[in-house]
Design a protein that fits this description.
The protein is of the alpha/beta class and 329 residues long. It is built from twelve helices and twelve strands. The chain is globular and about 65 Å long. The N terminus is likely disordered. InterPro entries: Metallo-depent_PP-like (IPR029052). This is Calcineurin-like phosphoesterase domain-containing protein.
Amino acid sequence: MSTEKRTKWLEEELLLLHENYPHSTIDELVHLFKKRGFKRGRVQINHAAQRAGLKKSPTGLKRVFQAAHDPTTSVLENMDWIPAFDKFETVYADGAVICSDMQIPYIDVQLLRKMCLVAGKNRLKKLVIAGDFFNMDMFSPFVKYMRSRLNSDSWSMELEVASETLKLLLGTFEEILVTIGNHDRRILTMLMGRVGLAHIFKWVPAAEAEHRIKVSDYEFSHLISGGSKIRVTHPSKHTSKIPGRVAMELTLKHGVSVLCAHMHRQCLTSAANGKWCGDLGGLFAENRIEYVSLRESTYGFWNPGFFGIEDGFPTMFSRDWTDWSKWLT
């Protein structure tokens, strides 16, 4: 683990990073920052670039490749020029809330407010949003109704709802981690992967320059609570009609408790290895989502809800199954 001290990045540093990261090698960047009077190491620069969603240009990739290799040495002897995707986020919190699938603008506002009240009353200070923060209707070939109602500009409405949602969340939680979901990828796919989800969040007024929000391009993260490790994931390539099945399989695979987004169902069960696991539900208002309400399906009804974690122990909060009077009074 890096021992480099973490300090808030100045606007001038971020500008320097954005201008030079795409076409420069890491050693060149370290030297450039030092020359400008900023002490930033390799790890800090790479993490800042990842958070900002910066990518190497074709020229930059070529220069990184050339810098990593002695022309007299086989390319197979040093593969450091290829990035390793092992830098997913880990949240440390004795008390936290885990939610997912807000699918803004189709968020259940009343459930969102209940979640904030539960968090405040129980001192759950950190929040993990496990994918599908956005719905990204405007970038979907399927959604038609919102386009016609908003003059083909549903994206601006999503950004406005997202901003107001984040204001409410930032008034409740000290730190927020947002991981990626399949809906969040819609615009990234259209942009051919040139930017990451963190770049999209810069369009949300409440998130701009807000250091308490972290955004990750990984579908999963880890929560360490009460000495227990919990994997929080949005497995966009996997689903099941049976609640808990995907979460159970991932629990057996990874050997830790798993909370699973993307299923739109809610449950809490146990796997054969004795670890608990479950489906998160989501903060969606399913009666406002076109492809849910207008089509027939043999899948079960969606179950909105979220989870609270205290010292590693899960509590399931359901819109329809929780006695809210016991938690909010």
